[in-house]
Automatic annotation (TrEMBL), chain A:
Keywords: Membrane, Transmembrane, Transmembrane helix. The chain crosses the membrane at residues 6-28. This is DUF2681 domain-containing protein. It comes from Cohnella silvisoli.
UniProtKB/TrEMBL annotation, chain B:
PANTHER family: POTASSIUM-TRANSPORTING ATPASE A CHAIN, POTASSIUM-TRANSPORTING ATPASE POTASSIUM-BINDING SUBUNIT. Signal peptide: none annotated. Belongs to the KdpA family. This is Potassium-transporting ATPase potassium-binding subunit. The keyword Transport applies. Part of the high-affinity ATP-driven potassium transport (or Kdp) system, which catalyzes the hydrolysis of ATP coupled with the electrogenic transport of potassium into the cytoplasm. This subunit binds the extracellular potassium ions and delivers the ions to the membrane domain of KdpB through an intramembrane tunnel. It holds the Pfam family KdpA. The lineage of its organism: Bacteria, Bacillati, Bacillota, Bacilli, Bacillales.
């Protein structure tokens, strides 16, 4: 059972990183600035 | 004589920067060069085996996803192996499966290049786990950090949409840097009496008739990548203080240079990518200045000795030798401590928990700033992050849009940099406070008072900086510490890397701004001063209250 908790915690954390990556992507694509 | 030893090692390091930097630049510049003839066929075979058909450049998002997914697969495989190691081959000592929360901590520790070890290698891991999980991750975590750093440098120094191909960078980092260097250092260490064997633990009878077990194993191979990859996780529990890991002052110097040469050469690599080597030397000089500051603090604190012990009439002429190896003495111990916490390796040749309060503060300070050369790749990214912040602050002061390497720095980049800068103290100070508020956290403190605060603070600083050394008096092999430090290591590594790749992705697409007389230069002495000032001010603003409660309070109590 503890194995399941550990695996879920790892999976959840990496899912959070994916969410953070998506947020960063939104920030980078904000309008304005001198983009070509 | 002690200072002379340190000066000689520093001189060798500085002499290595340019040749190593040139070599690394040619590895990742993707321009045809002589290396291709040697490594090309081997690499093409690897590309074929992993099914890499196109080595086209990736956008920052694809690059980040590629390194994230690669790391997820490695974590999954490693966790399973640690949990079933007793059923796998190469386990002559009959070591059992690793406990769940300890496996969680260990696998995170090695995938993040931290190597915080809440277990003792000789009793906690089979030879199979040492080689297939630990050593494998020592290569892959270092190669990941290196690849991300190079991608970041490409992003801020080139134009287009892409920042390189992660899989190509990852393979090249292995084949052209870490594997050849590890083979070379392994052979050197074997020649200098470091064991390399698959024989089980020796059982011997001592002269007094007692029976003693002496752990051995494939030590030299692990020892080389442990340092070259700024990993730091030892084969034995006492790490490089063990005579089988680090038998002599000569092996000590080899280990210091192994963990220092690549991080120290990266600013030069950056200068070559920027087509302005002065840019690289400014970054290197700032790192070296900060390093010498912390080295002096550690060295002279240890040389002065512990006032409480000195007051007992014990001979203090050698300095504070508590927890240190006589074969290294003060200079080789303090230099090792300064380098291992600067390059965020985390390997130790002396007991950091017994450093004098100010010596411990020096080690803590380097990890808190996380820019004093830093680990594989991340130190350079960190310092460049502060460089962009410094340019931004100067731009605000003169009312001019800040520019860095010909690109305007705008709110979106600063938003990402602010997240990356603030994540580090947040990941240290919040868990430290939680540990003090809970019985689970306080229960691990073995040294109440100010030093207990330092013990807990050091554990989270080391985890967030992906260093891995510890004030090992802390009784940290419990579910609370395994899980909390595991999460801090993960967030400390990936939040920062993703945010900085996003900054690179944002800058690489921008139009170049022609340089004018009004452009703020980042390759001169003024910027060198601004960069150091920015790092120290941010560091002091975030960490000063914590270090006052820990090492400084302890120092004042000692008198």
């Amino acid at each position: 059972m503890l194995d399941l908790y550990m695996v879920l915690m790892l999976a959840g954390t990496f899912a959070l990183f994916y969410g953070f990556l998506a947020w960063c992507s939104r920030v980078v694509d904000e309008t304005g600035g001198d983009r070509k | 004589m002690g200072i002379l030893q340190i000066v000689i090692v520093l001189a060798v390091l500085v002499a290595l920067v340019k040749p190593v930097g040139n070599y690394v630049y040619h590895v990742f510049s993707n321009e045809p060069n002589r290396q291709d003839r040697i490594f090309g066929p081997f690499e093409r075979l690897i590309y074929f085996l992993i099914g890499l058909k196109s080595r086209a450049g990736m956008t920052w998002k694809k690059y980040a996803l590629s390194f994230l997914l690669t790391n997820i697969v490695l974590v999954a495989v490693g966790y399973v192996i640690l949990r079933v190691q007793q059923y796998l081959p190469l386990n002559p000592n009959g070591i059992g499966n690793m406990e769940q929360t300890l496996s969680f901590n260990t696998i995170i520790s090695f995938i993040t290049n931290t190597n915080l070890q809440d277990y003792s290698g000789e009793t906690g891991l089979s030879y199979f786990s040492q080689m297939v999980v630990i050593m494998m991750m020592m290569f892959t975590s270092a190669a990941t950090g290196f690849s991300v750093a190079i991608a970041f440098v490409r992003g801020i120094t080139s134009k287009g949409e892409t920042i390189g191909n992660f899989f190509e960078d990852f393979v090249k980092a292995h084949t052209r840097i870490f594997l050849p260097a590890s083979v070379l250092v392994t052979l050197l260490l074997v020649a200098l009496q470091v064991p390399q064997t698959l024989d089980p633990t020796l059982t011997v009878t001592t002269l007094e008739g007692a029976v003693q077990s002496i752990a051995i194993g494939p030590v030299a191979a692990l020892e080389s990548i442990k340092h070259i990859g700024t990993n730091g996780g030892g084969f034995f529990g006492v790490n490089s203080a063990h005579p089988f890991e680090n038998p002599s002052p000569l092996t000590n110097v080899i280990e210091i240079l192994s963990m220092w040469a690549l991080p120290a050469s990266l600013p030069y690599v950056y200068g070559r990518f920027a087509k302005n080597r002065k840019q690289g030397w400014v970054i290197f000089s700032a790192m070296m200045t900060l390093f010498l500051l912390f080295l002096s603090l550690i060295h002279f604190s240890e040389l002065r000795g512990n006032p409480a012990i000195n007051a007992m009439g014990i001979d203090a002429s050698q300095g504070s030798m508590e927890g240190k190896e006589v074969r290294f003495g003060i200079p080789q111990s303090t230099l090792f401590t300064a380098v291992t916490t600067a390059a965020t390796t985390g390997t130790v040749n002396n007991m950091h928990d017994t450093l004098t309060p100010l010596g411990g503060l020096g080690a803590l300070g380097e990890m808190m700033l996380n820019v004093v050369f830093g680990g594989k790749g991340v130190g350079l990214i960190n310092m460049l992050m502060y460089a962009i912040l410094g340019v931004f602050l100067c731009g605000l002061m003169v009312g001019r849009t800040p520019e860095f390497l010909g690109r305007k720095i705008e709110p979106r980049e600063m938003k990402l940099i602010a997240v990356a800068i603030l994540a580090h103290p947040f990941l240290i100070l919040v868990p430290t406070a939680i540990a003090f508020m809970t019985d689970l956290g306080r229960g691990a403190i073995t040294n109440p008072g100010a030093h207990g605060i330092s013990q807990v603070l050091y554990q989270y600083v080391s985890s967030a900086a992906n260093n891995g050394s510890g004030f090992e008096g802390l009784a940290d092999n419990t579910p609370f510490w395994n899980i909390s430090t595991g999460l801090v290591m993960l967030f400390g590594r990936y939040i920062f890397m993703i945010a900085m790749l996003a900054v690179a992705g944002s800058l690489v697409r921008k139009q170049w701004v022609p340089e004018t007389v009004g452009t703020f230069r980042t390759d001169n002495k003024l910027f060198y001063g601004i960069l150091i000032g920015t790092v120290l001010i941010i560091g002091a603003l975030t960490f000063l209250p914590a270090i006052v409660l820990g090492p400084i309070a302890e120092h004042l109590k000692l008198g």
